[in-house]
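[Meeting: bench + compute handoff]

Bench side (C.D.) handed over the final construct sequence. Compute side (W.E.) agreed to return the predicted structure before the next meeting so the bench team could plan truncations. Sequence as handed over:
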Amino acid sequence: MYQICVSGAARGDSVEEGKLLAVELGTAVAKAGHALMSGATVGLPNYAAEAYKSAGGRMSVGISPASSKIEHVMKYRLPILAYDVIIYSGLHYVGRDALLITSSDAVVSIGGRLGTLHEFTIAIESGTPIGFLQGAGGISDQVETLMELARPLPPGSMVTFNRSAPDLIKDLTDYLDKDYSKYHNLYQ
């Protein structure tokens, strides 16, 4: 079981455009037997977390920017129901993003705006594999252009694109199985 982070739009046009993709993604992560991680936020990551739990997912982990459950719900106005556990980091959004991405084995981004772009740059800089589920608009559908401007990417960067959630999860799982092959027993 790998820890797969779902990154994506909390607000904006790509939330409506990507809702079905997020549901498909959460279901695909559950069916693959992985844990789902997210920023414990609204929008596409929460739709994915809800679908993950509905599909029988075993461990949904949220990493909150807040320092407590009260702050998470009252100040940030973020959800709690789709998560088996929420870590209240107290790191606000920027710090939460770094903790979330570097704690994940791989990241999947859907839609998104600046926060999703921030999470992408953390994934690239930290060597965390990232896949983009395309079709929801936002940053995830434009990141290939940004990558061309930022070439060369750091050695070992793994970035993949797909319009199918199950295929994207399979691509990332296959990559992780190969990359982590000597640690296979840790991921049972």
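W.E. noted at the follow-up: The chain has a mean pLDDT of 95. C.D. will use this when planning the next construct.
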